[in-house]
Amino acid sequence: MNYDEAKAISRCQQGDQDALKEIFDQYQKKVYGIAYGVVRHREEALDIVQEVFIKLFRSIKNFKGKSHFYTYLYRMTMNTAIDHTRKMKRQPPPNREEDGEFQISANPEERPDRVLAHKELEEKVKWAMNQLSPDQKAALVFREVEGLSYQEIAEAMGCSIGTVMSRLHYGRKRVQELLRDYVLGER
Amino acid sequence: MRRKASFFVILILLSSPLFGAVAFAQVQIRVRVMEASNVGSGFDSSLRDLHDQLGSLFSFSSYRILKDETVSLSLNQSVSLPIPSERSLELTLINQLRVAAEVRVKISRAGRDVLTTLVRLAPGRSVSIGGPKHGESTVIVALSRL
Amino acid sequence: MKKECSSVSKLLEKYFDQEVTHAERSLVEGHLPDCPSCRDVLRSMERLRNFIRTPVEEAVEKEDLPWVWQKIERNIQLEEKRPWWEPVREWLDITPVLKKKVLIPVAVAAVVLILIMAPFLFEKTSSYPDPSVVEYVESETYNVMVYELETPQVTVIWLFEGPEQELSTS
């Protein structure tokens, strides 16, 4: 079925839930990707996806078409995800010994040490991202995960391109410092 | 347009309790009537909060509660209570200030005014009126605002 | 070389993000083959991007999201049976009040309210600073004395019923 965004938005603004489903089908993976990129936790990311589309249904009447719909939706997703992270405390980088349970891949060819190393890196990346300011984290997720251009990021974040570049620069710098060993290829 | 009108209606309705709260203010006054004497000793437990106050002024050895009531006073309405030796205590709320309530207190006996006073009662500070004799004891009326 | 490196290094991020102009791209790509340091910077940025992006791509790949729609649908239906105060709260949204046409009547209403409430807001306070004091005492028959202490906070009005009466004071 062809997706006509303008019509779907208009119908959704009239309260048509089928239209919301169309929008959901179109954007579900993008929204989940942004949510996961911020919280790095499956269940939380899924909660955020739910919350975003419920919020969207409530607030889509406010969308006047002055910006692209997808930047409007991405901004909503990012704000919802950031709100979730605010409830989380900053965690120290987990050591292997402190790791809780982890799932060993069902693939028998996956070596346990590789799985562990992978898990450790994921946790470290999550921790490092959590040390950024919300704006820096948002810019990094939009750029590195979603591949948005500077212009698109500026529209989604409601700031100038110069500000986007600054946030990206300092966000990258900080994460690189925190993941120094990994980024330099020593691990 | 309808929302505009509704907003004004709600504004008026929301502010009406303010008028009500002020116009129909009720003040709760605790009235404790006690007899103080030098016969025997003891301090009634319900007078515990007044111990320091009374003790700082008087050296009666005994304070015994005769009546402990809470009265509700509305503006310009009087409430009368009988007190020992055929006296009557009349309380009238004259004015309701932000913190204090102005209460006119009249003690009368056999239809004659013995004492009239206007006091301001605020939470945390009591006013005691004493002196009328009751046998070997002296009547003290302690008023406090709840 | 050094001079060129310092100007190119400022462009590396933009180049990495494919936000450079044509001229800038030529400058960077002309410089990279001869500069291992700039190449290392780009490699680090690439590694960092992979660290950030790969787990997300993997998570999105293995997640089956259509079941999430069922939860969203259910929540919206539950929302439609919202608590009674929710529509009232939305309805009381005073954003329209800030529009010019409504502002004047609202201002008038506010002024009227203030005028009505002024006597209560600016009521005369007593000349006595104390909240609980004796305004006056009258007795045609007996002597009266008023004792007021600050510590403890006590006010006593004492009625002397006869000239021979002695007050038992401390």
Overview of this protein structure:
- The complex is a heterotrimer of chains A (187), B (146) and C (170).
- With 187 residues, chain A is mainly alpha-helical.
- Chain A has helices spanning 5-13, 17-39, 42-59, 69-86, 112-130, 134-145, 150-157, 161-178, 180-183.
- Mean pLDDT of chain A is 83; it is low at 90-105.
- Chain B has one domain (25-145).
- In chain B, the strands form 2 sheets. Chain B has a 5-stranded mixed beta sheet with strand order 2-3-1-9-8, with no helix packed on it.
- The mean pLDDT of chain B is 80.
- By secondary structure, chain C is mainly α.
- Chain C has a domain at 2-62.
- Chain C has helices spanning 2-9, 12-16, 22-31, 36-62, 66-79, 85-91, 100-121, and strands at residues 134-138, 143-149, 154-160.
- Chain C has a two-stranded antiparallel ribbon with strand order 2-3.
- In chain C, a hairpin with a 4-residue loop joins strand 2 and strand 3.
- Chains in contact: A-C, B-C.
- At the B-C interface, helix 1, helix 2, strand 7 and strand 8 of B face helix 7, strand 1, strand 2 and strand 3 of C.
